[in-house]
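User: I'm putting together notes for a lab meeting next week and I want to include a structural view of one of the chains we've been expressing. I don't have a solved structure, so I'd like a prediction I can at least talk through. The sequence is below, exactly as it appears in our construct file.
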Amino acid sequence: MTATTESPPPASPPGAEPGSGRRGLLRRRKPAGDSQTRLAIGLVAPTIVVLAVVIGYPVVAAIVTSFKKDQSLQGGFFNKGGGFAGFSNYSHWLLQHCGSAKCAPGTLGSEFWDAITVTVLFTVITVVIEVVLGMMMALVMNQVFKGRALLRAAVLVPWAIPTAVTAKLWYFMFAYDGVVNHVFGTHVLWTDGQWASRFAVITGDVWKTTPFVALLVLAGLQVIPDELHEAARVDGAGAWQRFWRITLPLVRPALLVAVLFRVLDVLRIYDLPAILTHGGGGTGHATTTVSILVVQQLQQGYGGASALSTLTFLFIFAIAFGLVKLFNADLIRSTQRSVK
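Assistant: Thanks for the context. Below is the predicted structure for the 340-residue chain, given as structure tokens.
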């Protein structure tokens, strides 16, 4: 038998410090994660800088301007002045009320709450209708039939049309001598009456954005295995039971994402009511949303408009934060029930 002996590691050169050989190099070598981290930071840093300049600076500037006095716009230039105003711009929007009487000139406090009411009204009604119709359209498009691809393409046409074009389209349809009055035999000023103008805005928004909800729900439906429905059908479950027990729980994540997107969109709605009803509905502020009010206030000065835009941001952020928390809790409960 021949004995095998392990060759000793190469000795370090004379005068070298201990651990300076190959093993010392291995010990001193930095982990690969450090280089990957530096690479990731180097790739992301330019984007963060651009976002800080494009988004961060205007936000900070708007907040700072909201504590200054208004500088009215006359002749295309802002007048000099505009000293520190404290919280007067915010109290102007939040604390001044006119009650049921007509506001005196220059008293704009109630306009903020009226705009909040109109915005919330549009949000609740449009999102509910779009979710119901979008779910129905997605269920139809998810079926296998001849011409399904053509139907899917046709459904997405309203969503692909620009909002300004959609607003003008419905403006001509809701005109006094337009298609709607001719079809129903009515004589309604759809863009001037209080509730008629709101109905026109809701109709235009539902027509345009329901395909978006249907597209997101359809993506959730296509990941549901057909074996689940087949097994439930064999067990004697009806169509409604299969929808309520299988389809709806599994499509809920996609549906919640659609609801979140649409809520945030409607809370910031501007172009559709601004073009369709000229931002007022003919009866004052029937279709004036918070975004329209901010643009109108810009003609009065930057201070009040900046305070109003800050309040609008906080209002939308609070709703978005609450919805995200609510949806996360709902998804966690649904996952726990499915695991059990």
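A couple of points you could mention at the meeting. The longest strand covers residues 73-74. The domain at 88-339 is CATH 1.10.3720.10 (MetI-like fold).

User: Perfect, that's what I needed.
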